[in-house]
Amino acid sequence: MKDLRSFLVSLFIFFLLSILGEYLVGPLMGDDIPLWKILAVSLITALMSVIPLQKRGLKPGDILKYFKRTYFAPEIRLYSLYTALLERFPDSQFQLKLDEEAQKISIRRKANWRSFGEVIGISLKDSEVRVSVRPKYYLDLFDQGQALESLQTIEKTIKMKTQNAS
Asked: For the segment 58-81, what is each residue's pLDDT rounded down to a tens digit?
């Protein structure tokens, strides 16, 4: 039941976005399209957008590129986390920077065919590791799986470093 609800919410979001797009773009292009055609095309567009996301196990909130998570990791050191992330994020796709004074790691994903890029911030304060993921450009709202994939990679690295430290 939860999967069906998730599917319907995602379908509804994409359906509304498609209708909005048709109503804004249609008149600008001089098109006089009947409402039933707009609804049919919007439904097909929504289905073609939602089904691939559902196959990957994504929820409605996971389709946006904005993520913020906080992890409790009492024994983790920033430099050891940075070196572990260097192994997981290749130079060909990512730029990693370490700021030891501010206790922050900055990761930037370069643009590719699935994304215009992401900006990932990791900060260490007391025993908490805070991770935030946002798009490189603010108009790039929808995630094709890469931002969530980066977040999950960081999550696994933090868990691995926490287990190794204890």
From this structure: 665 566 677 888 888 888 888 989
Cβ–Cβ < 8 Å for 136, 119: yes
Q: Residue 71 half-sphere exposure, CB side, CA atoms within 13 Å?
A: 20
129, β-bridge pairs: 71, 124
- 95 and 130 assigned to the same domain: yes
Rg (CA), the chain: 20
- pLDDT tens profile 96-144: 999 988 899 999 988 887 778 889 999 998 889 999 988 888 767 666 7
Cα–Cα distance measured from residue 76 to residue 161, given in angstroms and rounded to the nearest whole number: 7
Task: Pick the closest to residue 129 from 94, 95, 66, 80 (CA basis).
Answer: 80
CATH code: domain of residue 114: 3.30.530.20
Look at residue 91 in the predicted model and tell me its pLDDT. 87
The total number of structural domains in the chain stands at: 2
Last residue of a domain, one of 44, 60, 76: 60
Q: Do 83 and 142 sit in the same domain of this protein?
A: yes
- Enclosing domain of residue 28: 2-60
Domain identity same for 41 and 81: no
CA angle 109, 112, 117 (to 5 degrees): 35
Q: How far is CA 147 from CA 1, 10, 64, 164, in A?
A: 27, 18, 9, 26
